[in-house]
């Protein structure tokens, strides 16, 4: 462990006896598909710290898988939720509407990339948002085809799972999948494939040509309703494409009358240093999906888009009983207040710069760190067995994360081969807390590397 720990406080081994007792009950109470990652049971959490029922306090760099950009149990969110509980819990917005839904939509519309007018509809989860974005695109265009990318992740419901690229554990044995989905390459600068043996191979040029080719060998352009893309691939490995990619893709879709859906479920709400990651590219999408950090852990998601596109479906064609529920919209408005009052976008930029500087210095001492990349605070490092062959170091990654967890730092992996360590700390995490966590990470890496 790091020489001193200001934030981490471990009173027992991990898991502690109380956590172990609860974990022992899981196999009888829940199916194996709900297996848990961290062998501890939470008691309370605030900011970037999480304390289990054994009294052990951890630095949480997972942010609930990107849900807690404003931190665990932010005071403003708690206050908004308590006030809403005392007023009413449910009506179904389409039966009896409430002002917080309208106000949240208005405030989010002002953030639509490119400054184009927009409207927003709310759902419960990121997957629901993706499903409904596809429905909206098909209703507007009267076309069926959807183009998605290699290594993409868009959720686990039928259409979202079909759009998702990773087979294990998300898709194996779950077919048949939704029809009319077509897959194309996503530019991955560290591992860009040379598909045609071209000695002058350039990552972006090769991928762009393959995407164009798909409209000849996979599906006719007049049959494609939309292309769906993550501005930075999340579960795929925090892959930041070349700066030219999204502007090129916007021009490509406009050329053929195809809608562009940007999936900002993980990249949105300040994670990349802009409110939405699409802003870095200076383009306006037709539709945008959002979830995760929209409401600080209360289930809420949304689809935002150009009004003419959003009005493609007819009356009551989209919706749901719980969508945009009053607790969630109260939390969502509080989250926007926090962004406005605490300069979280600036904090995201500082956090990202700090992380990349520390990780690149670490890379100089540890050749197993093949790549350090990121945009804003959406940062990852990729572990390889050999920097020349770039063979994914999947097992090493698992051991490093387990070692760090035993020392009081909770982190997650990502990528098709599970060899990327990703950072999703709340954007307001103190930098000295990040340093303490990174010291633990390097100690864990050194120990596992020595094996």
UniProtKB/TrEMBL annotation:
InterPro entries: 4NH2But_aminotransferase_bac, Aminotrans_3, Aminotrans_3_PPA_site, Class-III_PLP-dep_AT, PyrdxlP-dep_Trfase, PyrdxlP-dep_Trfase_major, PyrdxlP-dep_Trfase_small. It is an enzyme of class 2 (transferase). Pathway: Amino-acid degradation; 4-aminobutanoate degradation. Pfam families: Aminotran_3. Its EC number is 2.6.1.19, 2.6.1.22. Its cofactor is pyridoxal 5'-phosphate. It catalyses: 4-aminobutanoate + 2-oxoglutarate = succinate semialdehyde + L-glutamate; (S)-3-amino-2-methylpropanoate + 2-oxoglutarate = 2-methyl-3-oxopropanoate + L-glutamate. Keywords: Aminotransferase, Pyridoxal phosphate, Transferase. PANTHER family: AMINOTRANSFERASE CLASS III, LEUCINE_METHIONINE RACEMASE. Belongs to the class-III pyridoxal-phosphate-dependent aminotransferase family. This is (S)-3-amino-2-methylpropionate transaminase. It comes from Sulfobacillus thermotolerans.
